Structure formats: C-alpha cells, structure tokens
Amino acid sequence: MSDDRKVGTVKWFNDTKGYGFIEQEDGGEDVFVHHADINCAGYRSLKQGQKVSYTLVTNAKSPKAENVEVVPPDAP
C-alpha cells in the first residue's frame, strides 16, 4: 500500500448503493470508491465532476480509493 495521495475526478457515484468510480487525473484504470472510505462529516457522498484526493490501494479485483477527501474548488 502506498501513502502517496492521488487526485482524480468523480466519474459517477450512486447514493442509493453507496459507491462509484473516480477517473484518475494521471490516467489509468478508473478507481472504485465506497462511501465508508469518504472522509467527511455527516452523510458520505460524492457528486459527479467533483475533484478528490485519495490513497490508491490495489487489490485482486480493481484499484480502490481509501481516505477520500473532496478538494476545495479554489485549490490548485
């Protein structure tokens, strides 16, 4: 597991099912994200098009995002 933070854009997120996918900024396979891995207060959800940072974990199925945080709109 790597501690390097990655950046990407939410491709889609299903509030009902509690998961979605992130498109990696540097290319590569889309990354699975589960609501339990979103760091925020209150209801854990993401919106399509939101910029996020995350820790990339590779498992047998596919890349997964952990420690997901929304990047503020005014951040570089």
TrEMBL record:
Cite the SUPFAM superfamilies for this sequence.
Answer: Nucleic acid-binding proteins (SSF50249)
Tell me which UniProt keywords the record has, alphabetically: Cytoplasm
Which coarse location class describes where this protein primarily resides? cytoplasm
Q: Does the keyword ATP-binding apply?
A: no
Molecular function per GO: nucleic acid binding
UniProt cross-references to PROSITE patterns, sorted A to Z: CSD_2
Spell out the protein name for this chain: Cold-shock protein
> Which organism's genome codes for this protein?
Pseudomonas eucalypticola
Lineage summary: Bacteria, Pseudomonadati, Pseudomonadota, Gammaproteobacteria, Pseudomonadales
